[in-house]
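Q: I'm writing up a methods section and want to include an example of the input and output format. Could you take the sequence below and give the corresponding predicted structure tokens, formatted cleanly so I can copy it straight into the document?
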Amino acid sequence: MSKPLFSEFTLHRLVCDRHIQSCVWFMDIDGTLLDLAPSPDRVHVPESLLWALGQIAQSPQHRIALISGRALSDIQQRFAPLPLIFSGNHGAEYQAGPEHWTHENVQAFGRHHDAIAKALAPLRQEFSGLLIEDKTYSFSVHYRQVAAAEGPAVARRVRDAMTGIEAIEIVPAKLCWEIRPKPGPTKADAVHVLWQRVQAILPSPTLAVVIGDDRTDEDAFAALPSAVTIHVGDGPTTAQWTLPSPAAVRALLQHTAQHLTTFFSC
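A: Here is the clean output for your methods example:
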């Protein structure tokens, strides 16, 4: 069953129906804010997006949290110095203003880091185009540039390579396998942690808007029962609404940035 399409009119109706006075935006990056690229280092961040994010984040009634599988340092490189909140490695690491902290489970993952790196290394020679991204607190095995027919073989080899390594889980993403700590953190942890931090300092009632595009974002969709959840692109989802593309997400943010003075007017 297809989900309804989200729009600025949907958002305005929700704000008015719930008498909303503030808004927290939880958003993924790749495939949500940014168009997917052949490799993570080749994504393009439009200046218009940076402008919209900056305008919204400077409003006293809005907060923006970017929650991504990218490493925190990578996110900061692309979006600093905007006054945003960042969570990298699916909730493993955080930056909010001057504060930086990590999830308690990353220490256990760290003890297995070198073994994981060593076990994955031979896959580069086995599959042309395979990219293994070491993000310190997780690994991503990207097979976007691998021949489509070899996709199932990549999946088998990743599982085989991780056999016997404890405290990890292998999670599918878009043409990628994520290897991360088990149990957690997940993007649901990030939403919970950041919601508790910002909700208390914002005018009430506060609306949470969660936007993402792949399997790892489904955890975030389930984090807050009252949240507005939006899935980007095709495919099954538990989100309530959909948007067709990152361009549509950027258009929603652009519209919001241009109408901040009337955002909560009903």
